[in-house]
Amino acid sequence: MANIKSAKKRVLVAQRNAQRNLAFKTSIKTAVKKVLVCAQSEDKSELQALLSKAYQLCDKAVAKGILHKNTAARKKSRLTKAINKLTA
After folding, report:
1. CATH number assigned to the domain comprising residue 39
2. Which parts of 1-43 fold into alpha helices (H)?
3. Distance between CA atoms of residues 10 and 16, nearest Å
4. How many C-beta atoms lie closer than 10 Å to residue 20's C-beta?
5. Which H or E run includes 73?
6. What tens digit of pLDDT does each residue of 6-28 get?
7. Domains held by the chain: number
C-alpha cells in the first residue's frame, strides 16, 4: 500500500471504480444471455425489447469508458448473428 495520503485515496477510488465497472460488465452479460434465451422462443416483440436493452447497455458502457467502442461493436455483431442463426 502507498505511504502518501493522496496515493492511498487513489487506490481506494480505483478499487471502487473497478467494482462498478465489473458490475456493469456483468449486467451486459446478463442482458445478452436473456436475449439468447428469448430468441429460442417465438415472442418477437419481447426479443426486440431485450435486444434494444442489450444494445443500450453496450453503448452506455462505451460512453462511460468501461468498454472500448470496437469491443461493444463486436459484442453487438456477434449477438445479432447468433439471433439470426437461432431464429432462422
Report:
1. 1.20.58.110
2. 5-40
3. 10
4. 12
5. helix 69-87
6. 999 999 999 999 999 999 999 99
7. 1
